[in-house]
Structure formats: C-alpha cells, structure tokens
C-alpha cells in the first residue's frame, strides 16, 4: 500500500504540497493534514507540463549504471502503458560551466518532477560542486523519504523491518561551505536553521500521523555539536509537543548505529540530518538486502525528484548486466504514485515484488544468479499477465 501524504498530494500535478503551515504552525490544535489545500502549497501561475492526459517527466540518467537503469524504466513503462513522456537531461560532472545543471533544473521546474541517477562528483576538484546537492538546494527539495522494508524473499540477518527515514536534504553537513583559513587548516561549516528544521520535523510527524506510525526518533550528536545539533534537538522537541498521540524520543548517532544492528525493530520513523541520513540509510539498506532495492523520494514545496535510495553510481557494474534494477524501478513506482497514476504504480510494484519474493529471480547482490535483463524480463512478464 502506498504511503499517505498530505491532501495536496491527491490534487493535480500542477500543484505541490509542502505547506506554509509547517513553517508557521498555530500550535497543538493545528494539523497540516486537516487544513485546506491552500495551506499546503505554493500557488503559482506557471502550469506544469502535461499534454493530452500525459505527464512529462525529466529523466536524468546520471553516471555508472544510471543510463542502463533508466532504459529499463522506459521498457517497463512502455509495457505497462504508463502515460509518461520523458524529457532527457544529461549531466556531466566534468563540465566546468554548469550549463548542463542549469538545463536540468529548468526542465524539472517546467515539468514539476523528475527521475535521477546519481551524478558522480570528482573528489580531486574542489572547485566543482556536487550537482546532486546543487539541484536539491536550487529546487528546495528539503526532505528525502526512504521507506525501508524487509522483503520476504530475501534472506537477511533481521526479518520484518519496517522503518521510514525522514532525512534533511538542503542543510546540515552538506552545505558545501568549506575554506582554508590558513595554509594547512580547512574549515567546513555545518548549517542548521530553526525554520528549515521545523519544516522537516513537522513533515515527519505529519507523515507518521497520516500513515498510522506510532513513534518518531530524532537522531543527533548534540552532546558534541551543542549549538547545531542542539538546535536540531530543541526544535524537534518543541514540534513533538503538538503531536501528543505520537511517541517521541531522541538518540545519539553512534548509539543509533549499534541499536540498528542489535535491535532495529525499536525504530519506526527517524528524523536525521544530511550526513547522519547517509550513514543510517546505507546501514539499513544493508540490513534489508543491499542497495539494489531501496528507492528514495525528494520533496519540496513545488517539485519532486525520485532516485535510488542509497545514491550510489555503481560505476564498476556499468555494462556488466549484473546490476540490480529494482531500486530504480521502485523509484519509478514512487514517481507514478506521486502523479496519482495508482493503477500503473500498483501493477509495476506487484510485478517487482513477485519477481523478487515469489519467483526468486534475483541478481548476485541478493544471492541469486540472474542478470539485470533477466529481472526486467520477469517483471515485464508479470505486467503483461496483469493487464
């Protein structure tokens, strides 16, 4: 079953859904999920691209296995009859001009949503900024949502995990504000603001309330980073008071990693800063089967971008026909759900689940022997049966 998001998610794709209510809460009596739609969205006179009942979506293949995975998405959508037209936007991390990034961002703004493979950032070029981070900042994709759930057909150390990560996307340790104060001394700034933190925390509690979740845990390191993470913790504690029906606690990041390995069932919804979210998402991904399954959704006031959850390029697997296509295909289902194409989304999601859990057609990362194409063809076969 698809997760429930604010009412505006059930409205037309020409509107997006994060509310000023999350920035200016009126107190315990106010619920963002109960307010009228005008409280949720930034109204705009600029319509999103949609022609003849079809949705135009920006597709950014990225690097490594990204182009191959996007090809599989196109194949699956074609068979399922999904009314999606992709506008391609190639990104070149070696390009110094950033013209490619400007074009891609313009495309997402025009279409309202996109799919993205991870874009490799050259580590030996400090003058080149991460296109992944720049895009999230420019589009104000302030939250990254990962739904981490065990698959019955995948043998792992822990079973029956069901955790949702609500990760900060536009602040924290990924502010990309670094400088050399004196030769040999580098300073990196971590940015936390009260306004953005409240927006993130209200999103998490509203998500928990709408989806019947019982507990929200804030992950921090306020014992050491007393001002930045201290503010993060303080704001979340204040927001939690507006949701007395939801249990709330906090946990230090290093203890969190240990607890996830030893007793992951204690977690329900987790709120994390940017860096902590990277660490925990990869850890949980390993607990449920690896990076080939989990998808991630990035949301902002007007735009949304969908991608594999662990944001890996998989460069070594490119062209080998061994990469697991399910993470990108699950991201494509998240896209369809976002556009309210629920029948198409359910058809593809069911085909993916049957392939992994019933037929056990699995790539090497899941312990199987199937190729990427074997998995895709099996998914397509189930889609044809369901039509």
TrEMBL record:
The keyword Isomerase does not apply. InterPro entries: Isocitrate_DH_NAD (IPR004434), IsoPropMal-DH-like_dom (IPR024084). Its main location: mitochondrion. Keywords: Mitochondrion, Transit peptide, Tricarboxylic acid cycle. It comes from the Eukaryota. One of its GO terms (cellular component) is mitochondrion. PANTHER family: DECARBOXYLATING DEHYDROGENASES-ISOCITRATE, ISOPROPYLMALATE, TARTRATE, ISOCITRATE DEHYDROGENASE [NAD] SUBUNIT, MITOCHONDRIAL. NCBIfam families: mito_nad_idh. This is Isopropylmalate dehydrogenase-like domain-containing protein. It comes from Tigriopus californicus (Marine copepod).
């Amino acid at each position: 079953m698809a997760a429930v998001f604010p009412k505006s998610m059930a409205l037309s794709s020409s509107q997006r859904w994060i509310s000023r209510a999350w920035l200016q809460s009126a107190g315990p009596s106010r619920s963002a999920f109960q307010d009228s739609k005008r409280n949720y969205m930034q109204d705009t006179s600029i319509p999103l691209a949609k022609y003849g009942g079809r949705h135009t979506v920006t597709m950014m293949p990225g690097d490594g296995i990204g182009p191959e995975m996007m090809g599989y998405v196109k194949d699956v959508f074609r068979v399922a009859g999904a009314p999606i037209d992709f506008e391609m936007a190639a990104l070149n991390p070696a390009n110094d001009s950033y013209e490619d990034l400007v074009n891609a961002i313009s495309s997402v703004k025009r279409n309202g949503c996109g799919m993205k493979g991870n874009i490799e950032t050259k580590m030996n070029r400090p003058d080149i900024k991460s296109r992944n981070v720049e895009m999230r900042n420019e589009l104000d994709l302030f939250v990254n949502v990962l739904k981490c759930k065990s698959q019955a057909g995948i043998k792992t150390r822990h079973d029956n995990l069901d955790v949702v990560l609500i990760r900060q996307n536009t602040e924290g340790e990924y502010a990309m504000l670094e400088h050399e104060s004196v030769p040999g001394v580098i300073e990196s700034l971590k940015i936390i603001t009260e306004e953005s933190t409240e927006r993130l925390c209200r999103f998490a509690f509203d998500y928990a309330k709408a989806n019947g979740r019982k507990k929200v845990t804030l992950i921090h390191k306020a014992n050491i980073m007393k001002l930045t993470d201290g503010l993060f913790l303080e704001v979340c504690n204040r927001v939690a008071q507006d949701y007395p029906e939801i249990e709330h606690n906090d946990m230090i990041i290093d203890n969190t990693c240990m607890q996830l390995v030893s007793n992951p069932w204690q977690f329900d919804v987790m709120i994390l800063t940017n860096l902590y979210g990277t660490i925990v998402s990869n850890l949980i991904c390993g607990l449920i089967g690896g990076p080939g399954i989990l998808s991630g959704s990035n949301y902002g006031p007007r735009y949304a971008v969908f991608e594999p959850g662990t944001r890996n390029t998989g460069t070594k697997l490119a062209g080998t026909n061994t990469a697991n296509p399910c993470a990108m295909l699950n991201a494509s289902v998240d896209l369809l759900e976002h556009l309210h194409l629920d029948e198409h989304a359910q058809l593809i999601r069911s085909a993916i689940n049957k392939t992994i859990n019933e037929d056990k057609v699995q790539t090497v990362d899941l312990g199987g022997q199937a190729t990427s194409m074997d998995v895709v063809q099996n998914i397509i076969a189930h889609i044809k049966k369901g039509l």
